[in-house]
Design brief:
The chain is an all-alpha fold. 80% of the residues lie in helices and 0% in strands.
């Protein structure tokens, strides 16, 4: 479900950007949608290729680095990527800047005389819109691949892709106006839970790899049940609880910081 939530959230982001790019391509300009779609399709294939390249690099590293160290390093990378993906603090600026950047490039291309450069430019817009999200997902999923294998990652990714596909069909084929903002906020909250779980897992892995000390809180040991560690990565140690508290403070603080920035 963690993988599915991330893939679905990134899918929503990609659909929203592509919808903004193609919104004005109607009537005589409808043909301009083709290079955008083709570029997005190439971006999807490039994401798959990037996945196999990343897996190959991990296998090569696995020959020279211990499993615990590799898991700790990949888990840290996944946490960093997830923090970037959520980007609550830059949420308003990010959306406005990212979408307006693509729209400025689109207008500049459409104002030029029809040529091969126009088609290449629109194709690159479609490619960048999808591959940027795909690259983030590939980086994030490496930690899950090391810990749980390809089957679990493939199942979660398939669920996320199916959900994204449904939204894409409703958006581009059914011409439905969906509550994208509410959907992004909902998936963002789910990602916040995923982040806390991942931070707890990462801190524990770093303890097992001796990157962090392990300071057990004796009073909490009988209070925190085993299932809390299994499902939510809540462990009775100072390091894991402090890491999760810091992550929660960062996400909540940046959210309210973005609201103040938007009002200002």
């Amino acid at each position: 479900m963690d993988v599915a939530v991330l893939v679905f959230r990134e899918g929503l982001e990609c659909i929203l950007v592509l919808a903004a790019i193609t919104a004005s391509m109607t009537g005589e300009k409808q043909a301009h949608q083709r290079p955008v779609v083709a570029g997005a399709a190439i971006g999807f294939m490039a994401t798959i290729v990037t996945w196999f390249i990343a897996i190959g690099i991990l296998h090569d590293l696995g020959n020279s680095v211990s499993a615990l160290n590799l898991q700790a390093a990949s888990g840290m990378l996944a946490v960093i990527v997830l923090l970037v993906v959520m980007n609550w603090f830059f949420h308003r600026i990010y959306w406005g800047g990212w979408i307006s950047l693509h729209n400025r490039k689109k207008r500049a291309l459409l104002n030029e005389p029809a040529s091969r450069n126009l088609w290449w430019g629109l194709g690159l817009l479609g490619f960048a819109s999808l591959y940027r999200e795909g690259f983030e997902v590939v980086l994030f999923l490496q930690g899950y691949y090391l810990k749980m294998g390809g089957g679990t990652v493939l199942t979660g990714a398939a669920i996320g892709l199916v959900l994204s596909g449904v939204v894409a069909v409703l958006t581009f084929v059914g011409q439905r106006r969906l509550p994208y903002r509410k959907m992004l906020i909902f998936t963002g909250v789910l990602l916040g839970v995923v982040l806390l779980v991942m931070v707890g897992e990462q801190a524990q892995e770093m303890q097992l790899a001796h990157w962090l000390p392990t300071t057990t809180i004796g009073r909490l040991t009988p209070v925190i049940p085993d299932w809390a560690g299994l499902w939510f990565s809540v462990f009775p140690t100072v390091e894991t609880l402090a890491a999760q508290g810091l992550a929660a403070a960062l996400v909540i603080g940046s959210y309210y910081g973005s609201r103040r920035l938007a009002r200002g």
